[in-house]
Amino acid sequence: MARRGKTAAIWVWAAIFAAAALFGRIAIKIWRTSSLAHPGKVLVTGYCNCEKCCGWKRLPDGTTVYDYGKLKGKPKVVGVTSSGKVAKHGTVAADLNYFRYGVKLDIPGYGIGTVEDVGGAIKGRHIDVWFPTHEEAKRWGARWLKVEPLL
Known about the structure:
Blueprint: H1 2-33, E1 42-47, H2 51-54, E2 56-58, E3 64-66, E4 91-94, E5 104-107, E6 111-117, E7 126-130, H3 134-140, E8 142-145, E9 148-150
Parallel strand pairs: 1-7, 4-6
Antiparallel strand pairs: 1-8, 2-3, 4-7, 5-6, 5-9
């Protein structure tokens, strides 16, 4: 009986240590990806016009609609930004609380971009830069960069 109690205690401690290790890794990952770990920098991710990046779906009749968010089910014109412009190299999606429409940004490794779009996942110090293909957007990935607004 004493042996079973000792084994149970070992399992409990093992579970506690495993949970601490798991949550410790998660906490470290959250910290590395947070803006607090990158002062003065902006998270720059890539996007394209595809359904994975923009959250739209094609209906059986060939039309496209928003797949989620507050515009779910509403018609979507693929390749047109929220400001009404056609997306092209230099199109930037941003949180309008941080960068307003029309602001030009110098983005290292990408070039000059203009804020012309918004996105459901774009919050705070995070911008999306447009690429013509999904592969190029994935290749860009996510980078913390010193982005300078141009006057």
